[in-house]
C-alpha cells in the first residue's frame, strides 16, 4: 500500500534570527520568524509525512503554545516524525520539494541539505529532490519578506 502527503510552510523574514533551511545554517542578514527555528523546508516535509499518515499537521503535533518547542531544532522534530513512519511500518519511497526564496540563493546549500535529510530519513540521495525557485519579485516571497517551501512524500507499507 502507498500513501502520499503534501506539505507547505511559509515564514516571515526578520532581523536578529539565524536562517536555517533544510537543517543548514545559511549566511543571510535575516532569518525566519517562528516559535522553533522556523526551518520552512523541514516543516513542509514534516507536514507531508504527517499528511501521508493522516496524522494531522506540525502545529498539532508540535504546538507553538508549548515552550518545549521554543527555538527547537527542526531536524529533531523531523526525526520524531520519521520514527512515527517506522512505527507504522512504512518506508519513504521518495521526497520531492521546493524552496521558494528571492534571496538568498539556495543552490549552493542544497547538497548539504540533501545530505542531512538522507541521514535523518535513512534514504539514498536519489530518493530526495530539493529544488530552488524564486517568485520573480512578486508577492511577499518575491519582495524578500518571506520564504516558503512545498514538499510531497510517497510512503510504502513494508
First-to-last CA distance: 8 Å
The total strand number stands at 7
Secondary-structure class: alpha+beta
Sheet with most strands: strand arrangement? 4-1-7-5-6
Main β-sheet description = 5 strands, mixed
SS field, number of helical segments: 5
How does the overall form come out from the CA principal axes?
globular
Low-confidence stretches: none
Task: Report the radius of gyration as a whole number of Å.
Answer: 15 Å
The proportion of residues in beta strands is 25-35%
Binned, the helix content reads 25-40%
Average pLDDT rating: 96
Task: Name the assembly state.
Answer: single chain
What order do the SSEs take from the amino end to the carboxyl end, as H and E?
EEEEHHHEHEHE
What does this structure look like?
This protein has 158 residues and is of the alpha+beta class. Helix content is 30%, strand content 32%. The chain contains 5 helices and 7 strands; from the N terminus they run E-E-E-E-H-H-H-E-H-E-H-E. The strands form 2 sheets. Strands 4-1-7-5-6 form a 5-stranded mixed beta sheet. It has a two-stranded antiparallel sheet with strand order 2-3. The N and C termini lie close together (8 Å).
Briefly characterize the structure.
Helix content is 30%, strand content 32%. The strands form two sheets. It has a five-stranded mixed sheet with strand order 4-1-7-5-6. Strands 2-3 form a two-stranded antiparallel sheet.
Q: What distinguishing features does this structure have?
A:
32% strand; 158 residues; alpha+beta; globular; 7 strands; two-stranded antiparallel sheet; five-stranded mixed β-sheet; 5 helices
